[in-house]
Amino acid sequence: TVKPGYDRNAKVYTYQVNLPVKGSYAAIWQFAMAALRTIPFASLDEITFRRDGIGDATVDARLKLTLYLPDGTDPS
Q1: What is the pLDDT of residues 2-48, one digit of tens each?
Q2: Which is higher by pLDDT, 71 or 31?
Q3: Closest by alpha carbon to 49, among 37, 35, 31?
Q4: How confident is the model at residue 43, as a pLDDT?
Q5: Contact 4, 12 (CB under 8 A)
């Protein structure tokens, strides 16, 4: 999901993005760090993990990212 916003003080548009991801714990962290390196105007606000069983190698996670775009930037 995407939630747009505008911060009047900073004069930036914000877009909060919630990404459901699934994989190994290490792969999810690698994805999160790669996203932050690739998108320098993003922040990782929250990451949650859920595993169905202690022996499961696959983890369900949800990443909450915020993208910050300067005033006047067309996001499309």
Answers
A1: 899 998 888 899 999 999 999 999 999 999 999 999 999 999 999 99
A2: 31
A3: 31
A4: 96
A5: no
Tokens of 40: 């320098």
Q: What is the DSSP string of 4-41?
A: EEEETTTTEEEEEEEEEEEE-HHHHHHHHHHHHHH-TT
| pTM to 2 decimal places | 0.80
For residue 69, count other CB atoms closer than 10 A to its CB. Answer: 15
Going by C-beta distance under 8 Å and a sequence separation of 6 or more, which residues neighbour residue 52?
60
Residue type, 36: L
Check: CB of residue 65 under 8 Å from CB of residue 35: yes
Identify whether the C-beta of residue 47 lies closer than 8 Å to the C-beta of residue 61: yes
